Amino acid sequence: MSISDCEILELPKISDVRGNLTFIEGKNHIPFDIKRVYYLYDVPGGAERGGHAHKALHQLIVAMSGSFDVVLDDGHGKKRIHLNRSYQGLYVCPMIWRELDNFSSGSVCMVLASNFYDESDYYRDYDQFLEAISKKI
């Protein structure tokens, strides 16, 4: 997998004078079934989140409110993506190191995941991640 496999997905947006509605269906709007949802909020100014990669997990990252940046790293290149629209999601495939930073005040980051939490699916050490990448080439 590479950062070129990670992309912004446009989600359905139903506009109405009463407000907008966006919905997400697994295997329809995103390329995986949704097994877990979590969200980050009240992130202090200057703080970073993420700092890991997943061996097999697929994710969709959405800025539900406010904005933040996601830095993607496949061991060969890096890409910074600014998220600030609740009708767009960043698809992140397995074996991509991710870091989230530059959170605006009051931002909320929602993540849809393809599987339940499993600590053994994580690379939390960047050097171990790079070593795993080099073995797959």
Automatic annotation (TrEMBL):
Pfam entry (one): FdtA
UniProt protein name: WxcM domain-containing protein
Species in which this protein is naturally found: Desulfuromonas soudanensis
Domain (Sugar 3,4-ketoisomerase QdtA cupin): residue spans on this chain: 5-132
Taxonomic lineage: Bacteria, Pseudomonadati, Thermodesulfobacteriota, Desulfuromonadia, Desulfuromonadales
CDD domains: cupin_QdtA-like
InterPro entries: QdtA_cupin_dom (IPR008894), RmlC-like_jellyroll (IPR014710), RmlC_Cupin_sf (IPR011051)
